[in-house]
């Protein structure tokens, strides 16, 4: 297999990264992907940065062992905690996060220079979105709202029911009561795009919803073009690895990916946390075994 035919690795704390992979698949239909969802240890958003950094190292190490040509951290929390660290650990490999592309897209979209950031506690505490946005345009105000329950709702497939609507209204109340409302909303967690319709409906005024997956796909496409790593020959293949409950991943993951997931392409990976520096393909087991 040539370097151009190697797959792109994508990892997330669970299923949210499938919203990023969906955009990658749309932009790069000829590329193969290996998706790794850490479904046994989600959510990442309520854990410390040091813990998330160690989880991210384990996930990245496993995917790199499987011979990928580029890595996408499809998780805002893991991007904030570990992007620069992983880039230092694996300097030979292009590693892309989802924060900077989303922040840039938000800056380009705002007209009144008021941006709402909906994210997890860890992402907001890191201050990375605020720093990037205000570096790009110091006049922009960023209004942050932690929305941790959105992750649980998304993972349960509750995206447009009464529970989702009540939770959304409660979270967004501080933003809706502003005299001058934000005109741009960043979905600062890759789980949140499946709730975008519910989120948009909660605003009384028209807002631009920024899905960082689309912006990230543009960056990845540009990097593959610049490095001449676009796959032009081998048919695309998609594989999914999970750390727990592959059957549930198949069922709920379709909501995020917006297409059926073949159960035969979903594998359970177990034990890599015991020896993350040397993962082995023997760690893969068939679903249900």
Brief characterization of the structure:
The protein has 289 residues and is of the alpha/beta class. Helix content is 43%, strand content 17%.
Task: Walk me through what this model shows.
- This protein is α/β, with parallel strands linked by helices and 289 residues long.
- The chain folds into two domains: 166 residues, Rossmann fold, CATH 3.40.50.1860; 114 residues, Rossmann fold.
- Helix content is 43%, strand content 17%.
- The protein has eleven helices and eleven strands.
- The strands form two sheets. Strands 4-3-1-2-9-10-11 form a seven-stranded mixed β-sheet, with helices on both faces. The protein has a four-stranded parallel β-sheet with strand order 6-5-7-8, with helices on both faces.
- It starts with 7 loop residues before the first strand and ends with a strand.
- 46% of the residues are buried.
Keywords:
single chain, 289 residues, alpha/beta, Rossmann fold, seven-stranded mixed beta sheet, four-stranded parallel beta sheet, 17% strand, disordered C terminus
Summarize the helices and strands and which ones pair or pack.
Elements: E1 8-12, H1 18-27, E2 33-37, H2 49-65, E3 70-73, H3 76-89, E4 95-96, H4 99-109, E5 114-119, H5 121-126, H6 128-136, E6 141-146, H7 149-155, H8 162-176, E7 184-188, H9 196-202, E8 208-211, H10 212-226, E9 238-242, H11 246-257, E10 266-269, E11 284-285
Parallel strand pairs: 1-2, 1-3, 2-9, 3-4, 5-6, 5-7, 7-8, 9-10
Antiparallel strand pairs: 10-11
Helix pairs in contact: 1-10, 2-3, 4-6, 4-10
